[in-house]
Amino acid sequence: VTQIDERGEIAEMFSKAWGIESEAPLEHVYMSLIRPGKVKGWVYHKEQSDRMFSLSGFVKYVLWDSRPSSPTFGMINEIHLTERNRALLVIPPLVVHAVRNIGLIDAIFVNMPTHPYNHAHPDK
What we know:
Blueprint: E1 2-5, E2 8-11, E3 30-34, E4 39-43, E5 50-56, E6 58-65, E7 76-82, E8 88-91, E9 95-101, E10 107-111
């Protein structure tokens, strides 16, 4: 929830109280900027989960579940997030995903993946 008053805004991006950290500790954090109309993806990871928080702009995440044992196997999910509808989106391994900036200004998201980036052997 974004809290707004005359001074500005505040929004929690991650909290241990949400129970997400039990999956993996917070080890790596980065931000990504997407220009209007541009897409980042398709990508999936074999080991890591992505924990993405949309900070600003208007984005559409598209996810496709490639996990044969999942109850949502083969399904597509579209999630719209904005700077007034922020959320932490947890994307498990083997879920193929992309994010598109559907707004008129740059969009920024922060990712807190469950594994640090390995430049020699990326999990992509």
